[in-house]
Amino acid sequence: ISTIMHLLVVSVFVLLYIVPASVNAFSSAPVIVPEVHPAHVTKITQLVQAALGDEGDANNNRYAFARDAVTNFQENDESPPSNELVYGELSVEVLATILDAVGVQENDVFLDIGSGDGALVLGASLLYADTTNNGDDASNGGNAMKMCYGVDIVPGLVERSIFHSDSLRRILQDSESFLQQSQANIELSLGDIHQPDSQLQKILDETTIAVCFATTWSADNSVGTSLQGRKLPKLSKALSHGLSSGCRVVIIDGKLDEEDDFQWMGDLKILCPDTAPYSVATLYHKQ
């Protein structure tokens, strides 16, 4: 779950700094797949936008409906504080840059923590489909992503994300695209990352790449006021207990605790006017 101020996140993600250690650590796996070709990123972005209904002013309307889902959930006395549930999302272009920096491996399992409308899960399911000819055609219908999960605590958002996933599936079927055969399987679930049930724990056990846009996880969940330097002890302990050793974790605008067995690997700076001067994606390796 992230911030509403990021709804206008610039789609250009600039890699300003990443320590050499992160490249070595993430590249030590047996197979690192090639970076996503820009033409393929553009194609996947268009498909995800179509599935989300983001055409013209529809994009603003979608965000409004997503915010309504959050507001309705907040009327429940048992829901988290309102400042922990402000809706926002990253673009597919930004996701592609993050995943390329991490180094996607064959049979990776992706998890978006706070998946909202499902945009990043849909994008991740298609970005690493096996392609040739500069991202235009499939070679054998494979996909480096074995599975793509999304989890959110807001029931209305989970319902919306499932609808968008079904919409993408229909679009791929109607277009007779090779991506219909090579799309990774998707599962979108309701859950609380701080108190995972057995289903969510199974997902955490399988996950090899976890992404969390944690901008608004403040109040009782963070230490420090700087957006980029905030420590997230509650999230850190939850992920430490839930994720398996070897998992690569990316936290945007938040820090995990190395005492929770998270090895810091590097930072990516995102140029974003709404979090001036930038946002930071921090890469960790779960030990």
Overall, the morphology is globular
Range of helix content: 25-40%
Which structural category do the helix and sheet elements fall into? Answer: alpha/beta
Strand order of the largest sheet: 5-4-1-6-7-9-8
Cα end-to-end separation: 25 Å
Range of strand content: 15-25%
Radius of gyration: 18 Å
Query: How many beta-strand segments?
Result: 9
Biggest β-sheet strands, sense, barrel = 7 strands, mixed
Helix and strand sequence: HHHHEHEEEHHEHEHEEE
Average residue pLDDT: 80
Low-confidence stretches are 1-29, 133-140, 218-222
Task: Provide a concise account of the structure shown.
The protein has helices at residues 20-26, 38-52, 58-74, 92-102, 119-127, 155-175, 179-182, 198-206, 233-242, and strands spanning 108-113, 129-132, 137-143, 145-152, 185-190, 209-213, 248-252, 262-270, 279-286.
Outline the secondary-structure elements.
Layout: H1 20-26, H2 38-52, H3 58-74, H4 92-102, E1 108-113, H5 119-127, E2 129-132, E3 137-143, E4 145-152, H6 155-175, H7 179-182, E5 185-190, H8 198-206, E6 209-213, H9 233-242, E7 248-252, E8 262-270, E9 279-286
Parallel strand pairs: 1-4, 1-6, 4-5, 6-7
Antiparallel strand pairs: 2-3, 7-9, 8-9
